Amino acid sequence: MTEARMDTDLIIAGGGLAGATLALAVARVVPELRVTVVESFPLSPDALPEDYQPSYDARSTALAWGSRVIFEELGLWSELSEHATPIQHIHVSDRGRFGATRLHAKDHHQEALGYVADNRWMGLCLMRALLAANVRWEAPAEVVDMMPLNQGVRVSIRKDGEEQQLTGQCLVVADGGRSGLREKLGFQPRTVDYGQNALIANVTTSEAHQFTAFERFTKSGPMAMLPQGSPARAGHDSALVWTLDDHALDALLEQTDEDKCRSLQDRFGWRLGRITRIGQCNHYPLKLTTVDEAVRPGVVLVGNAAHALHPVAGQGFNLALRGLMALVEQFRMATDEGVSIGSLSVLSEYQRRHRQDWQQTVQFSDSLIRVFGQSLPPLALARDAGLVGLDLVPAAKRWFARKAMGTGGRKPVMPSVKATEESARYEP
């Protein structure tokens, strides 16, 4: 089957943050590719509000500095930053022990180490940008199956109760790890169950956060408090990520809001003064899920479909975003060379280039959980010494800061930046 007979070039299963960002990046970087997004939730320009105000219970995502750079490349940051609170300081500590380390943006000549962005606002910004781009939407609809072809794929889509076929060069699975499409296509994920749950809520404290993100390691697991609110004025609201086992989670959910604040105060401490309010509590089980071989001819997994991490270090979406841009770079080079974007050589080269990043990020995140999840006195003393060492040794502190900021030397992939002579060449 030739490219001219294809219905589209790129089919993206999932129009959430990962899928929508990929669609926008391809539209900006490789505009000659036709993009179709298949999303299970209805999408309409009428749903975009003219005046947006986040609610108290709005969910948010931690964006590393490197992710800001990516959104700047896509021309989205100036709008997105309207509801993105800067993280100017990071304080990492071991609850009840002396170990601690501190990072400050000014020490790295940055205005922020990262940001806490409102999820719904990010989605609205992406939708507004995509409405002006050459992107086709099939929604509400879902991808239910795929068949490889000689020059691409045939995707089965269920829409309005009926099944229809769509052909393209490549299918990108960006619908998360819970849809079942990944397993249906034959990918085998590896899962490590941490035996814990993440409780997500927004909280208010008596003292302003001063744009500080707190990472606290406790006997029951890590917790994070991330600054929220105005990008210009330090407020009193923070986004809470609290790790709890099943028993502790059940007991906490039965408490009144006042008692929840007391329980949180006991675990977090008084660095932000009194905890005066806690909002709607959501929770989900914590697992590390990875797929060693996330590509096949004509299909590639991205985002949570490829790797889902513990939220302890806020690395999940940032890792996914770097992977998306690495994939777009391969699409651009393949298109320049007249090679199908779904060819195994193209997708394998993407996986090769992205593998070191995701392996190191997974190891970094998983190691934090295992090291700080140990309560034996010798290990507790060793990690306290490690935190103090990070605070005192400049080289170690710079390494830790680079991990937090998500800056790994990624090259920009906008059209003005040409591939170097060292770029891989593909065989048709």
SSE map:
Blueprint: E1 10-13, H1 17-29, E2 35-38, E3 60-64, H2 65-73, H3 77-80, E4 84-87, E5 89-94, E6 100-104, E7 114-118, H4 119-131, E8 135-138, E9 141-148, E10 153-159, E11 162-168, E12 170-173, H5 181-184, E13 190-205, E14 212-218, E15 221-227, E16 237-244, H6 246-253, H7 257-268, E17 275-278, E18 282-290, E19 295-296, E20 299-301, E21 307-308, H8 316-336, H9 344-372, H10 377-392, H11 394-405
Parallel strand pairs: 1-2, 1-12, 2-8, 5-14, 12-20
Antiparallel strand pairs: 3-7, 4-7, 5-6, 9-10, 10-11, 13-16, 13-17, 13-18, 14-15, 15-16, 18-21, 19-20
Q: Mind explaining what this structure looks like?
A:
- Residues 406-428 are annotated as: Disordered.
- Its cofactor is FAD.
- The protein is of the alpha+beta class and 428 residues long.
- It has 2 domains: 3-84 and 115-191 and 287-405, FAD/NAD(P)-binding domain (3-Layer(bba) Sandwich), CATH 3.50.50.60; 194-286, D-Amino Acid Oxidase, Chain A, domain 2 (2-Layer Sandwich).
- The protein has helices at residues 17-29, 65-73, 77-80, 119-131, 181-184, 246-253, 257-268, 316-336, 344-372, 377-392, 394-405, and strands at 10-13, 35-38, 60-64, 84-87, 89-94, 100-104, 114-118, 135-138, 141-148, 153-159, 162-168, 170-173, 190-205, 212-218, 221-227, 237-244, 275-278, 282-290, 295-296, 299-301, 307-308.
- The strands form 4 sheets. Strands 5, 6, 13, 14, 15, 16, 17, 18 and 21 form a 9-stranded mixed sheet that branches.
- The protein is globular, with a radius of gyration of 22 Å.
